[in-house]
Amino acid sequence: MFNYLLLKSIFDLSDIDVVERSKYDMSFKYFLEMAPEDLVIDPSSLTKFRRLRLQDVGLLDLLIQKIVEIALDKKLIKSKTYSVTIKSNEHKDQEAFQNSGEFKEKAKSCYKIEAKNSELKNRHGYDVATSAGLFGMQIQGAMAIFAVNLKRIRTLMRESE
């Protein structure tokens, strides 16, 4: 329950919104230590937990503030903000590749791929999982891609006539 409340606090969501987003947002599921096909809690359970157990006093904000204060006192952190440094060679190699001419050439044609992905998401229902489980998601993806390819084939056939 605390993980739901932490997500609620970080993203400034209502109880219903945090539970709803937890149904389809894989980063939320990962944070909640759930498998993609796992069901989420009922929003009323989160509300009841927050009101009865925590007396709805902003305990979560108080807890986070206290953790930051302790970390500052013990000099584990230098400020309330943070930055990320790259220590892995793999990430340094990726950064070097992104600065290369080869990457910049490939990036020029990226808009074509993004347009196709956008079509899949916005017109063919690939943005939200409509079924639970990996197999159901694979079927949904295959059907969406199949529909898009059929449309492309039909367009090409009309142009060739």
Descriptive notes:
With 161 residues, this protein is mostly helical. Helices cover 69% and strands 0% of the residues. The chain has nine helices and no strands. It has helices at 2-11, 15-24, 26-31, 43-53, 59-73, 89-98, 101-108, 110-123, 134-160. Helix 1 crosses helix 2 and helix 2 (15-24) crosses helix 4. The radius of gyration is 23 Å and the shape is flat. The protein starts with a helix and ends with a helix. The model has no long low-confidence stretch (mean pLDDT 81).
Task: Describe the secondary-structure layout.
Blueprint: H1 2-11, H2 15-24, H3 26-31, H4 43-53, H5 59-73, H6 89-98, H7 101-108, H8 110-123, H9 134-160
Helix pairs in contact: 1-2, 2-4
Give a brief outline of the structure:
This protein is mainly alpha-helical and 161 residues long. It is built from 9 helices and no strands.
Based on CA inertia axes, which overall geometry fits?
Answer: flat
Low-confidence region ranges: none
Q: How many individual β-strands?
A: 0
**Which range best describes the helical content: under 10%, 10-25%, 25-40%, 40-55%, 55-70% or over 70%?**
55-70%
Please tag this protein with its features.
mainly alpha; 9 helices
